[in-house]
Design a protein that fits this description.
Beta_hexosaminidase_sua/sub (chains A, B); cytoplasmic vesicle (chains A, B); 16 strands; 2 domains; elongated; homodimer; alpha/beta; Chitobiase, domain 2; TIM Barrel; 8-stranded parallel β-sheet; 18 helices
Chain lengths: 535, 535
């Protein structure tokens, strides 16, 4: 018996077809949850049909092979890495012995998974992009099998050490193309290992964008080749709390192999206190009366040196980060310091800005956007930049983050013809008691006033984990499975809204994460067959 | 140069004198916090005096020895285990190489720590109790030392791999005798390792009571030798989700070596759904109209078999758990099922209880208390038992947990002459955004109306981590350092209330926990010299 996985484009990560999303967890349903007919599938595929008949699987005979018709084969790194990973997920690593592998009579064996990439361009060596085709079909046909007994009993038998897989048809593709997680490595430094663990778990939840909010006021951990003083002076520690070029490369490659884009954010002109430590004259000197107070405000927008610096800096960034987009921030600019500075005041007068400092902000951003455009990159910006009327490239992605009024904002942004992503309802750093995953799950991103055309401009969303109260000690259990709820909202069909069914699948999904070594926290009183052991 | 640690009683855990609470963390202050003159001491000792002069320490020469006058020596397990642990804390384990151990000229070396237990009964083989003397003095005298240069510079030098310790005098004892953490192993099963990690961290925070809320409605993980069906049927899984007698023994011994009492809670008559699965006729059958509905309510208080069972069960418990106290619960009894049951109704009539089911509850509890008293144990109970007017032994500990009105409750309980502990403000499972440790820290347990005599009856408090949303994946970062805030409130002097000083010390303390492998979450944007690496 063989199983064919058929991808329109390179699926980038075998897990994108979740016919393979079974494991021991499915065999023992968590006690508290009623079982979903979709088992532990998460996020739910667009179309799925699970028959009652099942096939046995044995690690000694099961093979994943490239279909003859496939446009990608043994030389495709992405694919071969995915084969190894999913084989391990399916059969575990060495510690898990396989018992009874001769199986029971009457159960057909599935011995081969054929992977068929149908697109001409297999993208094996490329990077994922907003236009990557993530659709795939899985069909496990039962017509060849003679089944002597009810297989479902075998599947549920807790004494069965044999893996089984049900006959299944899946037709799958994402509802939104941009499904991201924001991590903040400035408020707390996250060791690379914590980032890689997040990427690994993102892949298990079909996230495809890592929004790396890499620097901010508190620290500047990005080690710039062009301006090494930025991290030398601006990081929490110049050696132990920085991301070296090798670190950044590793993160990008680790993400690429999992079909995840890495979009770095270098937020300016606000949120830049740490930049000032290693780059003289970059920030605005604040005044107390007629004298500099010794403290600094946002990036100084009136000096040519500022733009020279940004030109060099973003030239580096454009070559270090392969993604077509960079996030330029532009949020929460505090005008107090600009107002206090006599040189700024004079500049405002000379340019006829009056006392409207948002015009000065726009002046700065406009020049920055031009600089970044010259590096051949597209950009994302936080919503304030749009709100302030800055002239944006048509392919700009406006990032909506302000809670209360985000529907109105989506209406406005899309009415102006810009693509947009939503984060406002998904600030996962805001914790509260109870099952708040439901709140995230119930969000409908297209629930705003607008034409069909406008709705199409919403290309996705991001769950944000800001770092004030989060570091490597609590990141993973705080992020998962709460971010899994957002993942399904962004992937699955709009009508997938049954909260009880979601509870059941998500409970099983979180136990699968735990089984794979990810400390994803529980939804409610319950247990996993194998509890998290470390620490 | 030598240092003498003098204990009134056996300190049970060397760490109880925190002159030894230094490590590399102190050498590099966290960026965000202003530094406290008490460094990273947590909880703050009752009296502490740190001089500017310091001594060097080297793992190759430093020794911890039993003072000649000490009543405890090499044969004292508790002490020897503590020596090893604190030596490791001080100098790290193998991975940390010691550089420059020949040190700098002019810095006196501290080569010996003499430990002097002054009490006649050293308690080396015994268990800690509510009357254990936890006081200790530490005096590191500087009069012998000639110091050629300012030592503080050396201490702060980030390039110094040498450990230094400041001349210090400490006189210490706890404000409250009962300082506990409640873990709930019923709503989620916690692997033994997670419990041991909690005990280890409790010792680092001078907690001395582990309140083991071991069973409850969702599951019964306690493996009873007398009634093995209780866990066989009532645990989430009869093998993987139970605490065997060996597990329980290990937890108790691990705790004992750290000066921590283990008080198990077997909560009845409510919160007992899981008991009913393995013990027929123990729970009250609920009725729907004139017929049993198939569901069950609280323990059935009208059957003699119930009391026979409890007698046998608590006989086992009294021998398994060495502590002088057992927690009997008695909270949140729902009368709905009792009301529905005709046999119960008749019993109520026969006993003249009318329709006051709290009288039936008291009837049950009264008999249970007698049973437990006959096992020579004292008991703790949740406040409802006191509120319902049950006759209690004079040494009963009433556990105040209901938020809003806890001050009034403390007044009433102590006015009645009972000892009491407070948990109402310290339900750490209720999470919220931000620095909620401050809320826990600001609680003043004796801020209720009552005489001096009444105040003395408040013997302490407990931080509770109920398990609805907590298992091994998120327990540790959710518990620490939030429970550290409670620890200082229960240990240190009433006037230790400076929140900024606390922030500084607690930030450093949490980095020390991280350094020791405990994933304690951050207070706010900041960093630790060595971030948490695992996962």
């Amino acid at each position: 018996m063989l199983l064919v996985l058929k991808f329109a484009g390179l699926c980038l990560c075998l897990g994108l077809c979740r016919g393979l999303q079974f494991n021991d967890v499915d065999e023992e349903a968590p006690s508290a949850a009623q079982t979903s007919k979709y088992g532990s599938l998460w996020p739910l595929p667009q179309e799925v049909n699970i028959a009652e008949t099942s096939f046995k699987l044995s690690s000694s005979t099961f093979r994943i092979v490239d279909s003859k018709q496939s446009s990608a084969g043994p030389s495709c790194n992405i694919l071969q890495n995915a084969y190894r990973k999913y084989f391990e997920y399916m059969f575990g690593v060495a510690r898990k012995q396989e018992f009874g592998k001769n199986g029971r009579p009457g159960l057909s064996e599935l011995t081969e998974l054929q992977v068929w990439v149908t697109s001409v361009d297999s993208e094996c060596d490329g990077y994922p992009s907003i236009t990557s085709d993530e659709s795939c079909d899985l069909s496990l046909n039962v017509s060849l099998c003679l089944l002597s007994r009810a297989m479902s009993q075998l599947i549920l038998s807790p004494l069965s050490f044999q893996k089984n897989i049900n006959a299944t048809k899946i037709k799958d593709f994402p509802r939104f193309a941009h499904r991201g997680i924001l991590l903040d490595t400035s408020r707390h430094y996250l060791p690379v290992k914590a980032i890689l663990t997040t990427l690994e778990t993102m892949a298990m939840n079909k996230y495809n964008v890592f929004h790396w909010h890499i620097v901010d006021d508190p620290s500047f951990p990005y080690l710039s080749r062009t301006f090494p003083n930025l991290s030398q002076k601006g990081a929490y520690h110049p050696y132990t709390h920085v991301y070296t070029p090798a670190d950044v490369k590793m993160v990008i490659e680790f993400a690429r192999l999992r079909g995840i884009r890495v979009i770095p954010e270098f937020d300016t002109p606000g949120h830049t206190q740490s930049w000032g430590k290693g780059q003289a004259n970059l920030l605005t000197p604040c005044y107390s009366g007629s004298k500099p107070s010794g403290s600094f405000g946002p990036v100084n927008p009136i000096l040519n040196t500022t733009y020279d610096f940004m030109t060099q800096f973003f030239k580096e960034i454009s070559s270090v980060f392969p993604d077509a987009y960079v996030h330029l921030g532009g949020d929460e600019v505090d005008f107090t310091c600009w107002r206090s500075n006599p040189d700024i005041q004079k500049f405002m007068e000379d340019h006829g800005f009056g006392h409207d400092y948002s015009k000065l902000e726009s002046f700065y951003i406009q020049r920055l956007l031009d600089i970044v455009t010259s590096t051949k990159k597209g950009y994302m910006i936080w919503q304030e930049v749009f709100d302030n009327g800055v002239k944006l490239k048509p392919d700009t992605v406006v990032h909506v983050w302000i809670g209360g009024g985000s529907n109105e904002e989506l209406s406005k942004v899309t009415a102006s013809g810009y693509t947009t992503i939503l984060s406002a309802p998904w600030y996962l750093d805001y914790i509260s008691y109870g099952q708040d995953w439901q709140k995230y799950y119930k969000v409908e991103p297209l629930n705003f006033n607008g034409t069909e055309q406008q709705k199409k401009l919403v290309i996705g969303g991001e769950a944000c984990m800001w770092g004030e109260y989060v570091d490597a000690t609590n990141l993973t259990p705080r992020l998962w499975p709460r971010a899994s709820a957002v993942a399904e909202r962004l992937w699955s069909h709009q009508n997938v809204t049954d909260i009880n069914d979601a509870y059941s699948r998500l409970s099983a999904h979180r136990c699968r994460l735990v089984e794979r070594g990810i400390p994803a926290e529980p939804l409610f009183s319950s247990y996993c067959p194998r509890e998290y052991k470390a620490v």
